[in-house]
Design a protein that fits this description.
The complex is a heterodimer. Chain A has 14 helices and 21 strands. By secondary structure, chain A is α/β, with parallel strands linked by helices. In chain A, helix 1 crosses helix 2, helix 1 runs parallel beside helix 8 and helix 3 runs parallel beside helix 4. By secondary structure, chain B is mainly beta. In chain B, the strands form two sheets. Chain B has a five-stranded mixed β-sheet with strand order 2-1-7-5-6, covered by helices on one side. Chain B has a two-stranded antiparallel sheet with strand order 3-4. The chains are: A alpha/beta, B mainly beta. Chains A and B meet through strand 8 and helix 3 of A and helix 1 and strand 4 of B.
Chain lengths: 420, 82
Amino acid sequence: MSRHRKLEVLVVGGGPAGIAAAVRAAEAGLQVGIVDDNPSVGGQIWRGEASKQSSSLSGEWFQRFSSNKIELFSGTRIFEIDSEHALAAENASGTYEFHYEKLVLATGARERFLPFPGWTLPNVVGVGALQALAKSGVPIKGRKVVIAGTGPLLLAVGAHLKEYGAEICLIAEQAPIGKLIRFGTALFRTPSKISEGIAFRRRLAGVPIVTNSWPVSVQGSCKLESVTMRSGNKKWQVRCDYLACGFHLVPNTELATLLGCKIEDGVVVVDSLQQTNRDSIYCAGEPTGVGGVELSLVEGEIAGFAIAGKIEAAQRLFPLRTKYRNFAERMERAFALNPKLRDAALPETFICRCEDVSLERLREHSSWRSAKLHTRCGMGPCQGRVCGPALQFLLGWAPESVRPPLSPVRVESLAASVED
Amino acid sequence: MRDLVQLTVNGTSLRVARGSTVAAAVVIAGRCGFRRSVTGDLRAPLCGMGICYECRVTINGVAQCRSCQIVCDDGMEVVTSE
């Protein structure tokens, strides 16, 4: 038997977008609940900060969150649609059936990993991953770290890990320097971003940063010992304890897809009030297009105001949203992935880590569906969330349809959701 | 020891800062791998945020728990499968 919870507004995801939507709806007197997969509220960017109130922006929003009556279900995951306006969820203590009048999808994003020989070795991790692990208690002080991939996240995480006492040996950006200079010039339209960038660079004083560069292989027996980097025709080895790689963020659109929301170019389509094509379902933050914490907050606020019927308050935020969206678009162009990154994966490199399926076995197939049926690629517990975005880049395969359950669940939970 | 929690990883007792995840405890316990893949490869956390399932361990007898998403508790028994 599932526990039933009736809420006027159900928010899925407790990151900045989810918090902002929940706060604006709760301030208007609506009964709001947040369901979040993580151990505490804040999403990945504010992971572990709820009790510390460190950055001023997060502190401000955690304050608003705690001063409103918002019910929080941490460590809880939606895995299935129960009925019209009801979702099934699971946590350590059992199953829930959440009934809602309005739903906000604030499911965030994950990192895109690009396979290369040795990327499955322990201590080869994501960029956001290493930050999340460090915030979760993994010792990082004195550890040698190489950061590779693309985008401002590399610098942000580098600066953060350095403060934790890590030794940042190298930051490798795959984009060529020319594109970055053009992006830098365009930044003058968003001055706050320039000072942010300068601050990161200052905090990373002494750290070598190379462009047009990425990892091609790693060395180590039971865990990572060194990484071979390349830049143009030059190759060299760097000794390190961790290699953190991140090649953009990928919106988490699985729940939106399951609910029948319209998806275009990998993002959830919304109107000016953040409403999807499905009645009563809103979407905010990274699932509508990756744009960072400021855009997530403003989209969340707009969704929350819209649900509360405060249309004018929502409309006042439109110019700010436009500004951050434009910034995100410029960033996407500057950090577009170099097609040469495809050559990093060799025929024998595993692409699907759940089922250990190599690139050469996948190349025998023309679509993900065919590869799934014959190799089990994408059929493991991550359900294609890691190999899917990699395959889209490597072979141009479109994402497969989404089927319930959205994540591995206990048999009892499935049984409970069928009973109800 | 209000700020520490005591748990075991593969039978060995250790204390970690309160609020640490089970993944952190496994690293602190000195394990470099968390599990073996279907072809026997050693694996450890990749995504750090509950997506990839590479950090799966057994916690208090429950198999397939994502150690990066679960916070350590006093008396917890964690078993890796590498």
